[in-house]
Amino acid sequence: MSIDTCIVIPALNDQRSLDAVVGRIPPGPTVIVVDDGSREPLHAPHVIRHPANKGYGAAQKTGYRAALSLGASRIVLLHGDDQYDTAETLALAEALVDAPAALGSRFLTDPSVIPTWRRLGNRGLTGLANLRFGTAHTELHSGARAFRADLLRALPFESWSDDYVFDQQMLCAILRSGATIAERPVHVRYDDTVQSITLRRSIRYGLGCVREIVRP
Questions:
Q1: Structurally, how many domains does the chain consist of?
Q2: Enclosing domain of residue 106
Q3: For range 18-45, the mean pLDDT
Q4: Which one of 59, 82, 115, 215 is at 20 to 30 Å from 70 when CA atoms are compared?
Q5: pTM for the full model?
């Protein structure tokens, strides 16, 4: 059986936020929740559970693999911690009419809500990638994403990192291929319920991004 749109939701430990996110999804799309080793198993209509925490990249791999096996033609990545606006993230599927990939950009809304050090790092890394690939994106570090299935099938994503730098490996591979990435505005929130990496891990992520951007 083939389906049109599949929503992949990586989630960890936060049942309340996951319930809020899933509750806003209208009928129609197939929803796959990837529980990346939560302390207490998460509950949703369709959950794939990792017995132990494997990492954000690994959770995406599991979700994309499942979506492709179901025959989805469009795959949307939606965070389970309710950081990214659900409706605006789901609307990225419509942007795939114009491009094989789409990103929700926080810099097309109100970037002042992003913590300063994150905002500056994002600007710097996005600027470096734009220089390297000859593009003019406003943000290349958003977790709100959508892809055509044929694009995902053409990418060697199974060989990439299980950690956060997976995101940048994905986008750099797309840009290297010459494919276009559409951008649409997405609103976000930052509070105690939103899962966020530490400054140390952010620095490690940033260095990994630089290595990925500059390599041939």
A1: 1
A2: 5-214
A3: 96
A4: 82
A5: 0.94
User: SS in 3 state form for the chain?
Assistant: CCCCEEEEEEECCCHHHHHHHHHCCCCCCEEEEEEECCCCCCCCCCEEEECCCCCHHHHHHHHHHHHHHCCCCEEEECCCCCCECHHHHHCHHHHCCCCCEEEEEHHHCCHHHCCHHHHHHHHHHHHHHHHHHCCCCCCCCCCCEEEEHHHHHHCCHHHCCCCCCHHHHHHHHHHHCCCCEEEEECCECCCCCCCCCCHHHHHHHHHHHHHHHHCC
Q: Per-residue pLDDT tens for 194-216?
A: 666 666 778 889 999 999 999 88
Place of tokens 């899962």: 195
Q: What is the CATH number of the domain that holds 35?
A: 3.90.550.10
Residue range 57-85, pLDDT digits in tens: 999 999 999 999 999 999 999 999 999 99
